[in-house]
Design brief:
The chain is an alpha/beta fold. The protein has helices at about 10-25, 90-110, 130-145, 155-170, 195-210, 225-240, 260-265, 280-290, 310-315, 335-350, 355-375, 380-385, 435, 440-445; strands at about 5, 55-60, 65-70, 75-85, 115-125, 150, 170-175, 215-220, 245-250, 275, 300-305, 325, 390, 395, 410-415, 425-430. It has two domains: about 5-195 and about 330-395, Response regulator (Rossmann fold); about 200-325 and about 410-445, Rossmann fold. It contains 14 helices and 16 strands.
């Protein structure tokens, strides 16, 4: 279903939510909405950067005025963003957070005096299909004059939208995590705030083979993301410990329901740890069935996406004792995360997950580039965004110049059952953002 958000709402609820966000940002000692602009004022990529001009707007923000200095000047106008999420299909449970994060980002840009423009957002459903995603992208570009796209969770869909962005000269923020999106299939129009599988592999691989076992079975969903997990994680494991032995590899079709035969094969092998390259309903069904079959008693289960909020929520106690990569959890004390969590919780009545963070940060970081460029023209913005340092949920961050991948930190985590039926994430190891990303030549991109 297609939806549209236009301009800025003047409702009391929205005003109160913005005040909440600003108070939270002040309490954590980080920049609030003014800091969302994240402009350096000295970006060599910005043709309009001459020290900037003061663009001041007075808004209702707890009795204070906010002033920001930007590289541009005057009213940039309206930016039209297309948000394409897989609301139906195997990733429907994950897409809700993505859409809500996008809506919150649009709201905050439109209500903030840090930006000289507003966002008109159009929402549609990719159905987790590359062909449908491309068709929906074409529709919003032709019918709604969209110049900016965000969305997809399936890496196959994201790769298709990569090509669409290049062919149509629109900026695209992918929600998929496979390395080739900002690797071998990178292009100058794509800027990814999502953490990729290479970054997660840095957090999970060494810990897994040095603490959970050296005899490894890989089971993956048979599409781009699963293959990326297999390639990157196996490679990093073998580098981390020469005793690693891959005792088996299996694949299941995306959207599969019955994993009994795969679980039996793993149980009958010498595997000490099973690495699961899957997410969403596939991962939930696999772990539930593995738990019922008693596989967890003999084999450690690790998935780069095991700690996802929706996965842990659906698994309940079945997730207890499993391990996973951590792209994001709400309790992180980094950047302006706690202000984001408070604003999101106030708006939606629940804490944000990684998909909400990615959508929110994708739009916010791109909005920073628009403000810095002083124009909504994506051709100009794509030249300003690479290497532009800005304030984010993770602290100072940027889209790396050579591949346009955000330099996010990653963590290894363990799912631990607390007082309720849902596990919490215990952080075991952190890899800083500048250490999590492999060199661009290793991922096949040089922009």
């Amino acid at each position: 279903m297609r939806q549209r958000d236009e301009g800025t709402s003047n409702s009391t609820d929205q005003t109160n939510s913005r005040r909440t966000f600003l108070r939270a940002a002040g309490a954590t000692g980080v920049l609030g909405l003014t800091g969302l602009a994240g402009c350096t004022g000295n970006n060599p990529n910005n043709p309009n950067d001459g020290g900037g001009s003061d663009d001041t707007t007075t808004t209702e923000s707890g009795g204070s005025e906010e002033t920001t200095t930007s590289g541009g000047s005057g009213d940039i106008g309206t930016v039209t963003y297309g948000v394409l999420s897989p609301m139906t299909g195997p990733y429907g449970g994950l897409a809700k957070g993505q859409r809500q994060g996008a809506k919150l980002a649009v709201k905050h840009v439109n209500e903030s005096d840090a930006f000289d423009f507003t966002i008109d957002a159009v929402y549609d459903d990719t159905e987790a299909s590359a062909s449908t995603g491309t068709r929906k992208a074409q529709k919003v570009v032709e019918q709604d004059d969209v110049n900016y796209l965000m969305g997809a969770i399936s890496s196959s869909t994201a790769l298709a939208l990569n090509e669409f962005a290049k062919d149509n000269s629109v900026i695209y923020n992918p929600g998929g995590a496979a390395v080739p999106i900002t690797g071998s299939s990178c292009n100058e129009w794509v800027f990814r705030a999502e953490t990729n599988t290479a970054q997660i592999a840095e957090a999970v691989s060494e810990y897994t083979v040095n603490n959970l076992g050296t005899k490894v079975w890989f089971h993956i969903a048979d599409y781009a993301y699963g293959e990326s997990v297999l390639e990157r994680t196996r490679s990093r494991m073998e580098e981390a410990n020469p005793d690693v032995e891959v005792v088996g590899t299996s694949r299941s079709q995306l959207g599969s329901k019955n994993f009994g035969s795969f679980i039996s094969d793993i149980s009958n092998s010498e595997a000490e740890v099973a690495v699961l390259g899957m997410t969403g309903g596939d991962l939930i069904n696999f772990v539930n069935q593995a738990d019922s079959a008693g596989l967890k008693e003999d084999v450690n289960l690790m998935s780069p996406t095991m700690t996802f909020q929706v996965v842990r929520g659906a698994l309940g106690a079945a997730a207890d004792g499993t391990y996973g990569g951590v792209r994001y959890v709400p309790h992180l004390d980094t950047g302006d995360n706690q202000a984001f969590v408070e604003a999101y919780t106030s708006e939606y009545g629940a804490e944000p997950d990684n998909f909400a963070r990615v959508a929110y940060e994708s739009i916010r970081m791109t909005a920073t580039g628009i403000q810095e460029a002083g124009t909504a023209d994506p051709a100009a913005v794509k030249d300003v965004l690479p290497g532009l340092e800005m304030d984010t949920i993770f602290g100072k961050n940027q889209f790396r110049s050579c591949d346009h991948q955000a330099m996010n930190p990653t963590w290894m985590g363990k799912c631990v059952l607390g007082d309720g039926d849902t596990t919490e994430v215990e952080l075991l190891k952190e890899v800083p953002g500048d250490e999590a990303l492999p060199p661009c030549e290793d991922v096949g991109c040089s922009l």
